[in-house]
Q: What sequence folds into this?
């Protein structure tokens, strides 16, 4: 477990130099002058913080954690979820992950890299001496009045130290489930389930598919119902008031399984297990949900039905699955087309072939966004979820008890007009929320989803 500290940020006087340049606009610009503090992007009306009043030399001011802080501020403004400082043979490259894509933002020389790396280490309370083993630190950082949880990971590489900074903005997850992109039916199904208390609720998808965001949004939803909620996570990504959150600590014997046993003694209405990822956690999840608790968790699985094989592979019997499995939501995140420059466009022949290969009819409409100033010429702005919600019913349980394979289960669901990821994705293409091109780049929305 990383260190936790709260760094207080207060606006200093005299006015500080900040990186006012938009990082996105200076793509791949060499920021050498800017970071060296010699010709920073200071507008002429701002007095330079030459330390006159404060009695500090310029060098001292530059050597505080200011560069790191400015970098974090820029990243937050650009809605980035991660900052990467990638060492190169000389200097480094700064990249931001925005809407799931990594965007190059700056190239730093060796001196600037050295400073920035040291500042990040100072901020994270990590020993500034060059590290030879991976280091991990967690801190809550107050930036311009907002608290941001930050996780800093430093890994020594051949070319230097690679730093990854994950920005966990609590405001991003406090959104209610309506804003995630769930359609009306799926949403009312989820709320329905939340009202009752039993069974296993799984959110599936690959890494970065919005599983955790959805789970946290559900926790927020449940919290409104005055229920007792206990979570066990590895690591705790977002701290939520009013919820008991326990972090896995294997060094001290606190595994998912051990944690779950302890959690049951805390008399929870809802249990949340960070991830079902092996036989042990699957066993714990099933045992807890069979004992009459509502247990929510995430799992790596391609679509809703794929959870059957995953659970079986981890040793769950068909009877246990039928008794415990209540709701499965498969999730993906897609980028939203920029509404400012969005325009209708035809479905290309190649896209028609791609859809036909999956057995999916072409959407009636398709859109594209060529890019404009408001989307910084990316064509996309923000992301939304694509979902498949499977609330199991008696006919599904009967089939599971016969040991049904995934293929037959999908055919059974198709006969019941079950809506898969592809159906939801196509609705969002026709509505101009996302594009076929985006779905193609994602690759697996169609896979197994029919
Ligand atoms: Zn645009």
A:
């Amino acid at each position: 477990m990383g260190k936790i500290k709260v760094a207080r940020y207060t606006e200093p006087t005299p006015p500080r130099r900040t990186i006012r340049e938009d990082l996105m606009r200076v793509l791949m610009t060499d920021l050498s002058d800017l970071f060296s503090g010699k010709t920073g992007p200071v507008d002429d009306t701002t007095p330079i913080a030459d330390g006159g009043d404060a009695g500090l030399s310029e060098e001292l001011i530059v050597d505080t954690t200011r560069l790191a802080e400015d970098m974090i501020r820029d990243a937050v403004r650009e809605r980035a979820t991660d900052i990467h400082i990638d060492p190169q043979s000389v200097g480094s490259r700064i990249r931001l992950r925005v809407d799931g894509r990594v965007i190059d933002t700056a190239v730093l020389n060796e001196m600037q890299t050295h400073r920035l790396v040291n500042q990040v280490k100072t901020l994270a309370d990590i020993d500034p001496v060059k590290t030879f083993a991976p280091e991990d630190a967690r801190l809550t950082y107050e930036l311009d009045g907002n608290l941001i949880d930050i996780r800093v990971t430093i890994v020594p590489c051949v070319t230097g130290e690679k730093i990854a900074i994950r920005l966990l903005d609590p405001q991003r997850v406090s959104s209610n489930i309506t804003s995630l992109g769930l359609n009306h039916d799926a949403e009312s199904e989820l709320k329905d389930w939340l009202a009752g208390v039993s069974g296993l609720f799984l959110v599936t998808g690959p890494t970065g598919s919005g599983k955790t965001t959805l789970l946290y949004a559900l926790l927020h939803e449940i919290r409104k119902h005055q229920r007792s909620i206990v979570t066990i996570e590895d690591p705790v990504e977002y701290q939520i008031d009013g919820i008991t959150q326990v972090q896995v600590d294997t060094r001290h014997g606190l595994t998912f399984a051990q944690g779950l046993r302890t959690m049951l003694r805390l008399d929870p209405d809802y249990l949340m297990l960070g991830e079902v990822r092996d036989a042990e956690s699957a066993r714990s999840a099933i045992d807890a949900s069979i004992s009459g608790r509502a247990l929510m968790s995430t799992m790596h699985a391609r679509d809703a039905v794929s959870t059957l094989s995953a659970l079986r592979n981890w040793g769950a019997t068909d009877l246990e699955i039928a008794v415990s499995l209540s709701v499965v939501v498969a999730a993906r995140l897609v980028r939203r087309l920029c509404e400012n420059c969005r325009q209708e466009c035809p479905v290309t022949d190649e896209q028609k072939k791609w859809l036909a290969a999956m057995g999916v009819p072409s959407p009636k409409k398709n859109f594209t966004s060529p890019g404009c100033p408001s989307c910084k010429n990316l064509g996309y702005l923000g992301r939304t979820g694509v979902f498949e919600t499977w609330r199991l019913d008696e006919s599904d349980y009967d089939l599971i008890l016969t040991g049904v394979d995934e293929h037959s289960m999908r055919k059974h669901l198709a006969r019941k007009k079950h809506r898969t990821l592809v159906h939801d994705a196509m609705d969002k293409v026709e509505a101009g929320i996302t594009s076929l091109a985006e779905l193609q780049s994602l690759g697996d929305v169609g896979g197994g989803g029919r």
